[in-house]
Amino acid sequence: xxxxxxxxxxxxxxxxxxxxxxxxxxxxxxxxxxxxxxxxxxxxxxxxxxxxxxxxxxxxxxxxxxxxxxxxxxxxxxxxxxxxxxxxxxxxxxxxxxxxxxxxxxxxxxxxxxxxxxxxxxxxxxxxxxxxxxxxxxxxxxxxxxxxxxxxxxxxxxxxxxxxxxxxxxxxxxxxxxxxxxxxxxxxxxxxxx
Amino acid sequence: xxxxxxxxxxxxxxxxxxxxxxxxxxxxxxxxxxxxxxxxxxxxxxxxxxxxxxxxxxxxxxxxxxxxxxxxxxxxxxxxxxxxxxxxxxxxxxxxxxxxxxxxxxxxxxxxxxxxx
Lengths: 194, 117
Hints:
Largest interface: A-B, 50 and 51 residues
Largest sheet of chain B: none
Low-confidence stretches of chain B: none
Oligomer: heterodimer
Strand content of chain B: under 5%
Helix content of chain A: over 70%
Order of helices and strands of chain A: HHHHHH
Shape of chain B: flat
Radius of gyration of chain B: 22 Å
């Protein structure tokens, strides 16, 4: 049985099911990260002392630049597919996935330097919330890479059968990816600078 | 959402490039302001204002929220309301000091004692 409204909009909402679905998912993600940000505020405001300068600002700034560039490549991928340029669209999705992997490699080196100094999540309240927030964010990056790898690899065959549905999938992945970028835009100053 | 007219999409791609450039510029400004070592309350205010501007640009342009359907706006308005409650409620609970010493007061007293030493 064919799933309805994957391409054409529903008459009641004016949206394809996938689009409303991804926005509702993002709403739940806002609450997930919101709970952790609330925890951060609670811990910080109630703390007797709060450390400054424990994290490498330049590494954090480089990761911010990487994620911003990946957001641009992701939205350009969607625009290229909208114009019917499959090869360019797929290339931009692949570039986005590579940038995401570079982000994770940077994060690995950052984590490794902390653990080498014995500074794990058990070390202080600050590092506990730092590892929780960035670890959860890192898992989201990894999830995005898996989906993008599918779209570039085995999932790309959908373009031949239904180009519009493939373009929609890239758009939904893009919405998720921009959200992940948006979370980092707030994580960077909150954890690295303040 | 945009149509598939190539001229419109090419213009959109240029816009995405400009927004990407502005986001990078704001990141540089955020780091530069941090190097100035402002007072903590001012540093927090400036950093969060810049982050909010950047977040708004990502949401409105990259996520196309500047021209979306009312169902999406509706679900997001609900999310924002619940998010505000989520952020405020635990902090308001901590502010309830009836019958106990507020952790904020305790932290402030500790800081004063430390400064006096």
